[in-house]
Design brief:
It is a single chain. The protein is an alpha/beta fold. The chain has a single domain, classed as TIM Barrel, CATH 3.20.20. Helices cover 38% and strands 17% of the residues. It has eleven helices and eight strands. Strands 1, 2, 3, 4, 5, 6, 7 and 8 form an eight-stranded mixed beta sheet that branches. The protein is globular and about 50 Å long. It starts with a helix and ends in a 17-residue tail after the last helix. The N terminus is likely disordered.
Length: 271
Amino acid sequence: MSWWNRLRSSPGKSAQPEFNQPGMRLGEYLIADVHSHIIPGVDDGAESLEQSLKLIERLIELGYQRAVLTSHIHSDIYPNSKHTLTAPFLKLREAIVDRWPEFRIHLAAEYFLDGHFEDCVAANELLWFPALDENGRSIRCVLFEFGFHEPPINHQQVLFDLQMAGYTPVLAHAERYPYWHRQFSEFESLHDRGVWITVNGASLAGAYGPETYQVAKKLIEKGMVKMICSDAHAERHIDSLQAIGKSALVQQWLQSDEPMNPRVAMEATNL
């Protein structure tokens, strides 16, 4: 049984999302998806150019106009860098221009917060994406993640160093760190320090279970979420974006002043 069918048949309805509103196309509101693994053959995302283009096509069908491509950079598993990612990114961009010339992509990365990331910050060798903050000022955003099994060590100092280097830290899938599900103050501390909080569409669709959904929901209800992301590795993640377009929780957030996705400035490039 697929994860989507398991979701639909799982117990505990009150802890699960409901898709009972008229559907909205998320991309018409979010404009840009800022977390995805669409560059082919570089991590655990798309394996081929054909798969990459299918994911882009699905985003366009949902109304998206831009995408930040954030392949994993993890020194032990995916030792990527600007040098390894540029060629496949440019090949993908060329294919996109041939099919959808108005669609824009930008090369960034999802960094695992480890010693290698610290080295990249110190050397000012980071893949980032441009955006505008709440006051309309240009900023440089860096997407990062923690490990899923144990809390990070020294993350406060690393994020301080990142901010002192002139970057805005963007936390990937905040709701997916189970060690903080009972320590919500950790999220509040990051938010108060200027870290942008993101959640995944699949979490809001219930794909990672009721507890993860409830944390994502709480983050949204407390006004802490800046961006909802696809984290697209495969089409099932685009299915989640389509599903949450019928969620009252997501629709209310889309129509609030919280979303920062439309403020991602795709005209700039760091290539």
